[in-house]
Specification:
252 residues, globular, alpha/beta, TIM Barrel, 8 strands, binds phosphoenolpyruvate, eight-stranded parallel beta barrel
């Protein structure tokens, strides 16, 4: 499957800083033809980002979405609205939302369903164990359980794409990435669980499994040849266009 690299800018930049960085990305990536590079800025700037990046090979993604189409849901944004502002991707269930907004996998499940209900919006579903799960050897169980809660009972059409972002919570923003062999192991567990739910044909055609957690231009090299890795979700290192470009160049 085609590899993908996704920049998650979180809430790290002001509006002006985001605009500046979008322009820098546009310039730096102008010769990156036919590669999948996605930028996820704050929701307030999605519309402008899409306009600025129109006719480039950079895509825009959102960092969150709500599960209803319309209604009395103050502060929320629907999948359709994201499509309207030019988003092609949306991150769902990031561990920071699970931690600070108490988002759980029943909400995540509803969000995925709603996103797959509109055309041309690809969910990036975050899963990953906490440090405590790792210590107590519960990683496999946690990953399978999160996947089942997120995707169990959801019908995926032949033309739909889904990205699973394996992000060990302890590795996010910590500067300590997972050992590549451990990432490969987790990705295999994820594939096995998806196989039970959807079958191998669908895994090969519809799913990509990417890694996120303290990736930078130095450690990315060690992940590159992993068999079951389809790309990266990058936080901190995506705020520096040169650093992010170096990572992207390593993987394509
Ligand atoms: C993330 O927030 O999804 C992430 C991977 O962050 P970082 O690269 O900073 O660990």
């Amino acid at each position: 499957m085609k590899k993908i690299i996704i920049a998650n800018w979180k809430m790290k930049l002001t509006l002006n800083e985001s605009l500046e960085l979008i322009k820098k990305f546009k310039e730096k990536f102008k010769n990156f033809q036919k590669k999948e590079v996605v930028v996820c800025p704050s929701s307030i700037i999605l519309d402008e980002a899409s306009k600025l990046l129109k006719k480039t090979n950079l895509q825009v993604g959102a960092q969150n979405v709500f599960w209803e189409e319309k209604g009395s849901f103050t502060g929320e944004i629907s999948p359709e609205m994201l499509v309207e502002v030019g988003c092609k991707y949306v991150i769902i269930g990031h561990s920071e939302r699970r931690k600070y907004l108490l988002e759980n996998y029943s909400m995540i499940h509803k969000k995925i369903k709603a996103v797959l209900n509109v055309d041309n919006l690809i969910p990036i579903i975050c899963i990953g164990e906490e440090a405590e799960d790792k210590k107590t050897d519960k990683r496999d169980f946690v990953l399978v359980d999160q996947l089942q809660q997120a995707l169990g009972g959801i019908n995926i059409m032949e033309n739909q794409q889904i990205i699973i972002a394996y992000e060990p919570v302890w590795a996010i923003g910590s500067g300590i990435s997972i050992e590549p062999s451990e990432a490969e192991y987790s990705h295999k567990i994820i594939k096995l669980a998806l196989n039970d739910m959807f079958g191998m044909k669908m895994i090969n055609n519809n799913f990509r499994i990417i890694y996120g957690g303290s990736i930078n231009s130095k450690n990315v090299k060690d992940f590159n040849n992993l068999e079951n890795l389809d790309g990266f979700l990058v936080g901190g290192a995506s705020l520096d266009v040169n650093e992010f470009y170096k990572i992207a160049k390593e993987i394509f």
